[in-house]
């Protein structure tokens, strides 16, 4: 039962353009969402997060949008840079109940930004 | 500025062997986790700990054991290694549950 899904295994974008990475979830208890970035042979690094009380959070070139009714979130990177090429993981947690705090990850999307 | 440190980085095990993956963090985090990542898959939680002396199972605990004798260390023990345990293992820590977790660089394990 894949509770967090990233349906696009890969995305290719030209430098300077917008990258949009998508994530869907099924568990209505999830109320905190994060994006992690992972380079080869390294551990995931935290990128940006959003609480369910908000529908948008910005940090520099990175913006995360949350649509609770659709159980969908997206990460926008503007403008995209070659150094953004990495695997991006969406993750979600429920701050209540028995699964409190434990992150559930999507499968990841490989982003390639071409110069 | 070490953060979360994992050893070894790479290891090849024979079926039936045992080994321990070491993990240490220097951020004084109470919460520590072990995840595994299989090719093309997301990270799955193996075990986690909310503090010294307290551990609990995650999503995929079978074939593994953990201990948490200190705040800093959270070793993962593989008993009777099986090919299905070939994976990349990530240790992580956080200040509290539900907040950002910080990952180590990973340990690549192959069981042959």
Describe this structure in words.
The complex is a heterodimer of chains A (115) and B (112). Chain A has 115 residues and is mostly beta strands. Helix content of chain A is 0%, strand content 52%. In chain A, strands 2, 4, 5, 9, 10 and 11 form a 6-stranded mixed sheet that branches. Chain A has a 5-stranded antiparallel sheet with strand order 1-3-8-7-6, with no helix packed on it. The N and C termini of chain A lie far apart (38 Å). Chain B is mainly beta. Helices cover 0% and strands 50% of the residues of chain B. Chain B has no helices and 11 strands. In chain B, a hairpin with a 5-residue loop joins strand 4 and strand 5 (43-51). The mean pLDDT of chain B is 93. The interface between A and B is medium-sized, with 26 and 25 residues.
The tally of helices of chain B reads 0
Quick one: overall form of chain B?
globular
The total of helices of chain A stands at 0
Mean pLDDT of chain B: 93
| Number of E-state strands of chain B | 11
Strand content of chain A: over 45%
